Amino acid sequence: MTSSTEPSEFANPPMPPRHGIYNFSAGPSHMPLPVVDRIREELLDLGETGIGLIEHSHRGPAYSDASAEAERVIRRITGVDESHAVIFMPGGATVNFAFLALNFLRDGGTGVYLDTSVWASKAIEEATPVGNVQVGFNGRGGDEFTCPNPMLDGADIAAPDDARYVFYCANNTGEGTWFTEPPRTNLPLIGDLTSDIFSRPWPFADHAMTIAAGQKNLGAAGCSVVIARRDFIETASRSIGPILRFADHDKAHSILNTPPTFAVRVIGLMAEWTEAQGGPEAIAARNQLKSSMIWKVVDDSEGFYWSRASRAARSGLNVTFQTDSADLDARFLVEAKSAGLENLSGLAGVGGMRASMYNAFPVRGAEILATFMQDFARRNG
Ligand code: PMP
């Protein structure tokens, strides 16, 4: 495991595609090749122990070191101190949306949700059977997908007196929109950062909790990084079992039961890779380059391509676009695939196309997609 002062094997920019394929998948998604290579080595032998990564006991020193190192790197990147816990929670984001409601809504009070996406709606769906839910903002009511940018002030968020928290989804993976900064509120703020963690500087310490599932900028699915204020998670319901309580996972150093050891190690390697790239600030500039290239093709296409994402909330990671014809969209996807541009179809329920370009996605892939889109528009416009 590397310390921050050693030159890192991960210092190179994102690697070229494998087999000539650019994978625009929304998640799980493109991984940096040096990280994949390292995982391959560690599957056979973790840290010269003679035992492979997924064969180590979660209570032994090799795994404990890997988990502790992952936590240290995440703390450096996010800037949170010991007032916040960094927990490797079992399951993906939706599972943790359910945990959130069970922890804080079961004994009364209301969860306020800013409904800007399919994933925010999923969080609402998990909370509704558990307690009171109020939608504080609806960004999916009309034809356009929006986020409240410039940001809502606390006073603008519809919240009852018994509100326990305000939940928002920072980057709306399916809709292609994002919050340009977190909502302002005096209530405990909960952010779903599943698709944008480490992609840009973000004030983690100002949140009561952030939830980010693996599978994108964190690598493998099966685990979520939950960063939470310790005094907040102590206020959770006592009428749920320990395995559902964030505070119990924190006190057990994320080994309350057998954790997803593989996913935690991959998260640690992705965090090291993030640091070696220069951290979220440097990565944000590269992400901006990629996404603006594709948004520009949409804007310059004279209406051939258009997007339901509102301009003020355009995501810097997931670019959504479509043509006026579902048949043409289908042809776009077939031709793109044969050109090596894979997984460009939009989220079910949104339709059209979506180019997901997370931290590890190479700039070259965005250039090739931009050229392909221009050529397709010329041939079919
Ligand atoms: N939130 C966001 C922003 C997502 O992009 C996703 C998955 N794409 C989820 C939540 C759901 O994650 P999971 O499948 O791990 O429950």
Describe the structure.
By secondary structure, this protein is α/β, with parallel strands linked by helices. The chain is built from ten helices and 13 strands. The model has no long low-confidence stretch (mean pLDDT 95). The strands form four sheets. A seven-stranded mixed beta sheet has the order 2-10-9-8-5-3-4, with helices on both faces. Strands 1-12 form a two-stranded parallel ribbon. A two-stranded antiparallel sheet has the order 6-7. It folds into two domains: 41-276, 3-Layer(aba) Sandwich (Aspartate Aminotransferase, domain 2); 278-380, Aspartate Aminotransferase, domain 1. 4'-deoxy-4'-aminopyridoxal-5'-phosphate (PMP) is lined by residues 26-27, 92-94, 119, 169, 171, 173, 192, 194-195, 213.
